[in-house]
Amino acid sequence: MDTHAVFAAVGVAFEFAGVAALAIGFVVALVIALAVWVRTRSGTDAFRTLREAFGGVILLGLELLVAADLIKTVTSNPTLTDALVLGIIVLIRTILSFSLQVEIDGVAPWRRAFVTGPEVLARAARKAGSAGTPDRP
Questions:
Q1: Rounded distance, CA 92 to CA 86, Å?
Q2: What's the pLDDT score for residue 22?
Q3: Is it the case that residue 135 has pLDDT exceeding 60?
Q4: Largest interatomic CA distance in the chain
Q5: Helix, strand or coil for residue 83?
Q6: Are 27 and 54 in contact (CB under 8 A)?
């Protein structure tokens, strides 16, 4: 079998995997959100769960589709136009991935350290320390 045909098949497989991840992931995210709604009876918690789960699914699907585009571009006879189109596609998908990650986490990646780890512990310690003191007028 020709190596070009093998790489083309791998590219198509990545495209299929990306679309399948989106479709199956949506169903799984919906089932998880419904389970949260049944357990908590909170539409807010269910919606947040759906949003976070499906956001992760979209990120996975985008990564797989970028991989498919890279494979197709590298294995073909790339022209300058092909490279430019790939660059634009990767740029758009990277911006989408970045904005989805910020939306899911609620914070920009470079600020994530401020809402995890030591900052969370410090905030909890401040709350615990102020819980024993009476409110002053």
A1: 10
A2: 93
A3: no
A4: 82
A5: helix
A6: no
What is the C-alpha separation between 21 and 56, in angstroms, rounded? Answer: 10
Q: Rounded distance, CA 42 to CA 32, Å?
A: 13
Q: What are 43-55's pLDDT values in tens digits?
A: 888 888 888 888 8
- Amino acid letter, 61: G
Residues 34/106/20/95 CA torsion (nearest 10 deg) = 160
134: left (phi over 0), alpha (psi -120 to 50) or beta: beta
Length of the chain: 137
**Which pLDDT tens digit goes with each residue over 82-106?**
788 888 888 888 888 888 878 777 7
What does the block give as tokens for 48? 């947040």
Sign, Cα dihedral of 67, 107, 115, 30: negative
State residue 53's pLDDT score.
86
Which candidate, 82, 79, 86, 75, places its Cα nearest to that of 8?
Answer: 75
